[in-house]
Amino acid sequence: VRDFAAALSAAQDTRDPIDYVRRVKAVLHDEIQVLDPNAQIEDTNYYSHSAIPDFVITWRREKIQRSVFLRDTLENVVAARDAEFIPDDSPAVITLDSGRTEAPVVEKLTTQMRKRPNALVTSATTLDVIDDKELAEQSPVSELVRANFLRGAKGWVNSDEAELLLNGGSFVGGRSDEEMQAAITKHFQSDAATRISRAATLLALAGRSEWSHDSENEDLFSGSLSDGELRSILPWILKEQPSATSGFWRKFGAMFTFGDLEKLYSELKGYDLTELLEANKATWAAKRAYAGLFVDEEDPADEFTGMQGDRWSFHGRTIGKTLPRLGSRVHIAYSGTKLSGRGASTSTTWEVVEPALMAYRLVRVELKGLRRSVTVNAEESDDIRLDISEIANSLEDTYYVQSVTVRTAAVDEGTVDTQIDFGRSLAVSNGDSSVEDLTRAVRDILIRDV
Amino acid sequence: MPAEENHEIGREGVFLFKRWLEATTYLDLPWHVYGSAPHCEVHHMGGIKTFDLAGFLLTEGNPMVFVECKRYGSVGGQPAEFQEFLAIAYGTVIWENSQKMRPKNSHFIWATTHPFAQSNWPTLTSAATIQSAAENHPHLAGDAPFDQQIGQSLAERIWLLVLSEKQEEIMLTTEELLTVWKKLKRKQALA
Fold first, then answer.
1. Does pTM surpass 0.90?
2. ipTM of the predicted structure?
3. Cα–Cα 20 to 30 A to A162, which of A61, A180, A398, B104?
4. Dihedral sign, Cα of residue A123, residue A124, residue A127, residue A132
């Protein structure tokens, strides 16, 4: 599909100079927008001026901008010494030709560009290659190459190099493509190069069947992933690399938070997140959990319907663990505002709950009787369990357990208190609980599979 | 008439003139003979002339402007070539009239790195000099009697500019131009 080339050629087919400028700039404007939907493009009303750009591109909420200079041929870019005279802030020069030229011209261009190391010189034909969606959708790396091209590419990029950049992204498995890595470093400014190379390495690591000491100590794992990176990389790995090791998932999961994961509810709909969650549940923080019913037929679109094992997945916008054997699902939320809990009130007796609490450090128990309510705090009681048993067994009233609060280790350091509200089927922590502790508390105490 | 392609003065020279003229902020010269020759063409009474540069003068009405660039180290053939240049400029207006076209009122710039005909310098762009050039080159200007009114009007649109290459050192730099161009508001959206 070469729509851009055809549109450009049609736009140039006029002898009216004003019409020519208007038509050519409209086609380029559209192409830039297609390549980078987040670009905000300002038309300066100049065309091919030696100093004033044709377009100035900015990006929402970001300070960076890129001036775009349109030129007719690469040979003329060299003759005009554009690379020396264009401004110093990583401008982009786009020629309307194929950008193919003889070696001495390329040599001159390379020399001129030394003074503008972050400038991009490229051609309409190259944009056409970058615009090839089929190529770009081969892998997250190709997608990142495409998405970062106008914003972060540098040097002279012709159509061959563009194809290498896009095709290089199609490799899978443990093969590291050094040629492509070199091309990325050569053709992208450092921020973009880091992002793209990191995605390439992550994909390669995800494909390793064994997790080695070397893999464990890869430098890239010390960074964190942006929402955009996570959005393009994670679904791809889940789909294409089902054999990714738990070692990979653990290191990969450390590059983002459970909250970051929650944002991908539409991208990850229907995916089995069990390996990712199991590898990171001890270190990912969350604050709320809700015990809901699991009905096998509740989502016929879910490809896992009918599976018997416990598994993690999205249900609507929340991540949860489905426990088919117990007919339940534990919904977990990163923030304190999600999961409102159930409105209807249910109650349970101390006698029923107590065995489930044996493994927990009790901080507080709220009992509600017909005539009065009683709260017992561990700080005020020598033996909280005994005190509660005495009250609960008292003949003066019939008591039900309203809530219990248990104390567990927090994700980073210290402890965290989690209040289990029986009426609302909700567990709420006052700090960062681990996903694992919250899930276990809900399962043990609310669902009571002990 | 040989096109400017045959009158090679070097692309680099043409781009030097383009940078210099555009740095004045009063000119926008997107077209040049090496990449967009058809937009550098003008019709005169003897055919078509391709100038080195073409574009717009950023004054009222944004008239078109055509530039003949001469990167010479000596006088060379300029006295005779300049006469032809004037005859072509006049011939262009005559041709437009003959085609019943609306007057384009284009400007014509002779930009050189070396002066010539210094003894006549003050009158080189006068209506009288245009008349003499037109009458000496009827194959470019046509053979009808010289139209004084056209001559007077054209004289105001003929520019004779001399560039010393050392001037490049004191031209506004790209960075400086970028700080002022928006404030100057020379250019409006193309109509």
1. no
2. 0.91
3. A61
4. negative
